[in-house]
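Figure 6 in text form: structure in, sequence out.
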């Protein structure tokens, strides 16, 4: 009896040339990004190269009412389904990004909802969305941006990925009022090469307004939160801007475009009278970054 090598057939009796043709076809129909990812993962011990490592840090303090929380999460879900976002991802050098999503409040409250995931197209984006949408909503006391930033840095220690850009995206509706002082934490992170962007939420009126809230939160974010080369923030001033601001932010972060000015607006048109940024790049040199940390209201 002829063996497989001499007969040119597989153990199933199918000619080897046909098996090879099917294998080549399977490779051909794979998206280029998926093929590159599989080849990279086959390299033992080598981190997967991505275009950006992006940490989404989302405020769930008590000042965020349930509607704001829902709009915030739905903004990310809509953005990750947006064709322009998916096109931007595929247009990168590696055709993929690494994203993780966690919620934060006080110094001891950081909840990882979706660990690091690679997004390289609609299928992986939907998988990320499915994980996120399945998580329940939570609310906690206090607002510690400094602790959220420290936690974000720890997520980069995963070492599963390599990239030229590491970005922390902080969204929230209040100033740092607990935990470590914000300024030295921010400066240390920026010096390490990580970029911090922001989505300050300044809806007026707020159903949960309290003495811990401050006007001009966009100025506070510009002067005290964001930092690093190409950093920017997009204030959200209306409920309908959650989706547009999140989409705009992700497009800039994924593409690596440096916006001008650093303070952008979710919608075209003049900014609202309150919270209008001033100073170079939108930052206000008079902003007191330790204001709420001292529990003193001077605004």
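Output sequence:
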């Amino acid at each position: 009896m002829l063996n497989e090598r001499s007969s040119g057939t597989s153990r199933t009796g199918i000619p080897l040339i046909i098996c090879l043709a099917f294998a080549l076809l399977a490779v051909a129909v794979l998206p280029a990004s998926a093929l590159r990812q599989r080849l990279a993962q086959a390299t033992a011990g080598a981190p997967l190269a991505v275009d950006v490592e992006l940490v989404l840090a989302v405020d769930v303090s008590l000042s965020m009412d349930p509607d704001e929380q829902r709009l915030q999460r739905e903004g990310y879900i809509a953005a990750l389904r947006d064709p322009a976002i998916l096109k931007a991802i595929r247009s990168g050098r590696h055709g993929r990004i690494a994203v993780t999503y966690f919620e934060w409040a006080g110094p001891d409250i950081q909840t990882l909802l979706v660990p690091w995931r690679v997004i390289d197209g609609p299928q992986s984006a939907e998988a990320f969305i499915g994980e996120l949408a399945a998580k329940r909503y939570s609310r906690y006391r206090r607002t510690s941006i400094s602790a959220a930033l420290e936690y974000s840095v720890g997520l980069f220690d995963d070492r599963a990925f390599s990239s030229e850009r590491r970005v922390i995206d902080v969204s929230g509706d209040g100033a740092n009022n607990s935990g470590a002082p914000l300024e030295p934490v921010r400066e240390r992170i920026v010096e390490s090469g990580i970029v911090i962007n922001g989505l300050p939420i300044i809806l007026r009126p707020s159903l949960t307004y309290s003495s811990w809230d401050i006007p001009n939160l966009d100025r506070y974010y510009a002067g005290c939160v964001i930092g690093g080369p190409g950093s920017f923030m997009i204030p959200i001033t209306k409920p309908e801007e959650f989706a547009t601001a999140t989409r705009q932010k992700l497009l800039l972060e994924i593409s690596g475009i440096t916006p001008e000015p650093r303070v952008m607006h979710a919608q075209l048109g003049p900014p609202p009278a309150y919270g209008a940024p001033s100073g170079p790049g939108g930052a206000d040199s008079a902003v007191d970054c330790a204001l709420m940390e001292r529990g003193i209201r001077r605004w």
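Caption detail: The longest strand covers residues 110-119.
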